[in-house]
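Comment on both lines for my students:
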Amino acid sequence: MVSKFSRRRFSLSGILLVLLVTLSKVSLADNNSRSGFIDFNIYPYLSDVDNDNWLTVNLFSTLPNRFSYFSLTNFSSQQGQRGIGDLNNFYTEQNIRWQIAEGSPIDLTLQMNFRSGEDNDRHRLGFRWRLNNTQQLRNAFKKLNLSYSINFHLLQIDNESADVYQLEHVFNLKMPYISDRIYLAGFIDHTFNQNLSTDLTSNPMVGEVQFGYEIVDHLYAIAEYRVNQYRRSDVNNFAIGIEYKIVW
């Protein structure tokens, strides 16, 4: 039998490995990409679900030949544990996207999901439509200072039924008419035909809306409203924290 200490040491080692991979990708991106960013989000305050993610790392990089890369990695701990040594759960999305033609608002997409636990990895194929880069809509979105995209994850490869699919909505709203230092951003993952227990919705949503204020260059105060319909209770959560962002 594996001891509790051994399991925690293994979990923490796995998290450190993910961080090292992320940092190596930053180095690779810095050498090969035209633009990109990495940000670190820490949430000391969680209102209702204290084992929700309280450390998130996001990384984006444009790559040659119309490819781009985006990843997010969430770290969390068991209920009642919030120390850095208690970060024993993780969830990550690794996205490779390919713009089908110069100037096109359509990308072919591959998303790979990995998380702590066994037999629960997931891969998705589909396409993304960037509405704000669509010629007929570009001016309207520019006036709104809004970017918005929909990722149609049409094929899901895992242990679920073959008819499960997902729509992923992502938005970012700037507010220069109030201040150049604030923004509102977020996502909604809407999954259809998910095989869940009878007391949960079969079309669950996971979403986050983040309000950010730039305190000084690259450092933000953030407040985040979260919805996770995979949970049986405490579907909603509210988080407050800080974000540090590096842009190249």
Summary: Residues 1-13 have pLDDT under 50 and may be disordered. Residues 172 and 185 are 4 Å apart (CA to CA). The two ends are 47 Å apart (CA to CA).
